[in-house]
Amino acid sequence: MARVLVVDDEQSIRITVSEFIKEDGHEVNTAADATQALRLIEEQDFDVIVTDIILPKIRGVELLKNIHEVSQEIQVVMITGEPNVDTAAQAVRAGAFDYLAKPISRKAIKEVVLKAAKTKALLDDKKRLEQENLMYQEHLEELVKERTAALQESEEYFRALIENSSDVIQIVDSEGIIRYVSPSVQQVMGYKPEELIGRPSVEVVHPDDLSIVTKAFEDAFQKPEAPVITECRCKHKDGTWRVIRGIGVNRLDVPSIKGFISNMHDITKREKAEEELRQSFERLQKTLEGTVHALASVVELRDPYTAGHQRRVTALACAIAKELGLPQEQTKGLRMAGLIHDIGKISVPAEILSKPGPLTDVEFGLIQAHPQSAYNVLKEINFPWPVAKIVLEHHEWLDGSGYPQGLKGEEILLEARIIAVADIVEAMSSHRPYRPALGIDKALEEIEKNKGTLYDLKVVDACLKLFAEDRFTFES
Ligand SMILES: [Fe+2]
Q1: Average pLDDT, stretch 110-118?
Q2: How far apart are CA 392 and CA 386, in angstroms?
Q3: Is the CB of residue 26 less than 8 Å from the CB of residue 117?
Q4: Of 171, 268, 362, 396, whose CA is between 20 and 30 Å from 338?
């Protein structure tokens, strides 16, 4: 439906034409002259204006120009009483949509109004689209401005972050050439960034550490998603070597980076401190071992019969531990405990220790107290292994018939179960004040006979295997 204005000074024509147009559902207004028509056009929107070309005061062609000053989209249909080419041409030149000659037929006016209304609707759509497009463009410009500002802000933020970081941030391209390095490189390595940019990154790497860097590059190439960690020596501008730890990621796929980004820092001091700590720990361990050896010799000095016993038990215990696949660290504790497992005998009077012949119950009781006496002394020493407990339990038997606590099975530390077997084998195969040596065969027979009841099954089997395969002999 269109809004139509019919302009004619003849009332009968106004009415007739209006009625024809209304039949198609259009909304129709009328005006008797150009002045009235222009006032109406200013007051309300029209889609189509049907006007007589001859009007009082202002001619129809003038009115057409005035209408187009108000709106270019309003479609004007001229009605002429003298249908000649000149009038028609004049009207179309002036921008009329079409013209009709009087007398006006219902069909003709209806058709022309419909066409004019369609044209107006199309022009309205076009105008609306143009306006929308304009608005969108304006909005787009604003959006771009906003985003650019946000991007700049974020870029400045990250730049500030990178440039003020105490770590060195470096970008190396796929050829290994440094493309960017943050200013902190001067504090860390002594070089200004411009001295390094454009140079191969490996130039400052220690020749012996080149393989580390090459491997890191290979890893980063193969697994772009995984960060690669390297530690290598790099030459400071002052000529000294610094240990540099770097975490790098492959960002070849990012167009603005196209390289490997690494975050690096100097760990020379930390490395040195760790090395010193390692050395100090080693010294401490040696001191501890020295102390243990000293303790071992004290008891052996008092009891010549057990001289060498602790050392030989330790040798066999360690061989069994190796056979059982015991971790190195656990074996260290076993060795310490083995070397002093009889230290508690220091509290047993020397004459009892070296007494030939059988012992009285009281004397035997005194000897049986030796694991507890040892424990009381050793528990005060802060060993990194359970030395005191191993020594305390070295006379416990699997079935609970041992001493001092009567522990059973796995309640007894594995190290203690190993020493127990090594102890009995060594003791039986050596000479004692109260009896001559029984020999290794008797000793092995004893553990074989009591394996699983007194002695740990696996420990006994490992021990038997060592002797059977001639892989162990006691030193004298
Ligand atoms: Fe013992």
Answers
A1: 92
A2: 10
A3: yes
A4: 362
Decide if 3-128 and 168-266 have a common fold: no
Contact indicator for 302, 412 with CB cutoff of 8 Å: no
Distance CA 299, CA 287 (A): 19
Q: Which CATH superfamily is domain 168-266 in?
A: PAS domain (3.30.450.20)
Region 3-128: CATH code: 3.40.50.2300
- Residue spans of the domains in the chain: they are 3-128, 168-266, 274-468
Q: Please give the distance, rounded to the nearest whole angstrom, from the Cα atom of residue 395 to the centre of ligand 1.
A: 6
Centre of ligand 1 to C-alpha 425, Å, is 12
What is the CA(334)–ligand 1 centre distance, in A? 14
CA of 394 to the centre of ligand 1 (A): 7
Retrieve residue 333's tokens. 């504790």
C-beta atoms surrounding 147 within 10 Å:
10
Rounded to the nearest angstrom, the distance between the alpha carbon of 426 and the centre of ligand 1 is: 11
453: its two tokens: 């009841």
**Residue range 398-413, pLDDT digits in tens:** 999 999 999 999 999 9
**Structure-token pair, residue 162:** 């990178």
CA of 422 to the centre of ligand 1 (A): 11
* Superfamily (CATH) of domain 274-468: Hypothetical protein af1432 (1.10.3210.10)
**pLDDT of 42-94, one tens digit each?**
899 999 999 988 777 777 778 888 888 888 889 999 888 766 667 777 777 77
pLDDT digits (tens, 9 = 90+) for 276-329: 999 998 898 888 888 888 888 887 787 766 768 899 999 999 999 999 999 999
**From the CA of 430, how far away is ligand 1's center (Å)?**
14
171-200 pLDDT tens trace: 999 899 999 999 999 999 999 999 999 999
Of the listed ranges 73-82, 243-252, 365-374, the least confidently predicted one is 73-82
